[in-house]
Amino acid sequence: MVRADATLNRQRLVLAVRDAVAEEGPGVSVRDIADRAGVGVTTLYRHFPSKQALLDAPSIDRWATLARLAGQAVAGRGSLPEIVDVLDGLTRMVSTDRGFIAALDLEVGHTPSTIRPWKHRFDRHLAALWVAAQRRGELRRYADPHDVVELAGMIRDPRRRERMMLTLVNGICAEGVDTERLLRRRSDTAMWRAVLRSL
């Protein structure tokens, strides 16, 4: 029970800092963040040793979730459908976090050092999926996973997200791949459900 409460408090703090920074900027006080989360400042510091660690938490959690999901796809010998799920999950996450990302001036392609280990783990798993899909002839030969992740990271308008995702997926998939079907199927996958739970 204690562990479950601690996990819930951490989740509340991560959501609180994301929303507080989006609304008030990075200068928002630690006390205000704790109040939003419904916890005390002591509890906040029990989870995060500094304000910077708290500010890094939403980005770390985002990449940790994506790395875990991509790793599960590799273990399951997945390829193109799972790549589309991962990219779609990434665009959903960054569009949800768009205010937070803008307030911290986080740039696509420039990963802060504290986040880098999780991003590198994600990159390794995605590269393995990518190679498998290219060998199967599912992806265009010139398509590069690093380029595609950066493009996906720029999709932040929730109203245009699905349309832009379709454009992106059409650009990387080989001729004959039904990209609209690939995007429709995502809501039925365990990976997609896990992404939704993380938002």
TrEMBL record:
<dbReference type="Pfam" id="PF00440">
    <property type="entry name" value="TetR_N"/>
</dbReference>
<dbReference type="InterPro" id="IPR050109">
    <property type="entry name" value="HTH-type_TetR-like_transc_reg"/>
</dbReference>
<protein>
    <submittedName>
        <fullName>Transcriptional regulator, tetR family</fullName>
    </submittedName>
</protein>
<keyword id="KW-0238">DNA-binding</keyword>
<dbReference type="GO" id="GO:0003700">
    <property type="term" value="F:DNA-binding transcription factor activity"/>
</dbReference>
<feature type="domain" description="HTH tetR-type">
    <location>
        <begin position="7"/>
        <end position="66"/>
    </location>
</feature>
<keyword id="KW-0805">Transcription regulation</keyword>
<dbReference type="InterPro" id="IPR001647">
    <property type="entry name" value="HTH_TetR"/>
</dbReference>
<dbReference type="InterPro" id="IPR023772">
    <property type="entry name" value="DNA-bd_HTH_TetR-type_CS"/>
</dbReference>
<dbReference type="InterPro" id="IPR009057">
    <property type="entry name" value="Homeodomain-like_sf"/>
</dbReference>
<feature type="DNA-binding region" description="H-T-H motif">
    <location>
        <begin position="29"/>
        <end position="48"/>
    </location>
</feature>
<keyword id="KW-0804">Transcription</keyword>
<dbReference type="GO" id="GO:0000976">
    <property type="term" value="F:transcription cis-regulatory region binding"/>
</dbReference>
